[in-house]
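User: Okay, second chain of the day. Same drill as before: sequence in, structure tokens out.
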Amino acid sequence: MFFSLEKNFDAKLLFNFKKKSTTMKSFFPLLLFIGCTVSAIAQNTPNKNGMTPDQQAAMKPWIDYMTPGDAQKMMAKSAGEWKAEVTQYMDPGKPPMKSQASVHNEMILGGRYLTTHYNGSMMGMPFEGLGTIGYDNGTKMYNSNWIDNMGTGILSMQGTASADGKTIEFKGGGYDPIQGKMVPMRQINTFTDENHQKIEIYQSMSGKEMKVMDIMLSR
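Assistant: Same drill. Structure tokens below.
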């Protein structure tokens, strides 16, 4: 009788142990799933801007593209008030025309673009121009757009900086009403020092490149 009770007691313990083992085996995958889910949620918790780390990683190329860098900091050094001494080479057979102008440069849109507001004279008439220069972080190129009251078109050029960063050479084209067509143009911006710059403008005349303007800037 004693032996029979001991056998029955052992069988009951064994049954309970197996039942608990089966339950634990079922519970382990659940714990693993919950742990992974909590980890994933923690890793994707929105930051103060409301973006999760995954969203931030996906946005990084765009953030890098939009963030001002060394090129924009270099352009910012030109912000301020400048005086311009302008020399125009209209006719090779005649002395160049000289004039003065005032230039206001300003960085806009969070330090991403340099704008120029130019007031002076040209051929005895009031001259006003607006320009924008930006550095494209993606293409690694400078882009320049220019409009003025001496025309109705937009002059667009692209440029690259020299290795020492002291010059930027722009190339592009615009409409020349004298020749009655679009012509190639080239512009070289030289940063002599913090208070002196030089702009040289070349234009194709009858298929041959000629210098048409020098602008000496000082402040």
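The CA atoms of residues 77 and 130 lie 18 Å apart.

User: Thanks, on to the next one.
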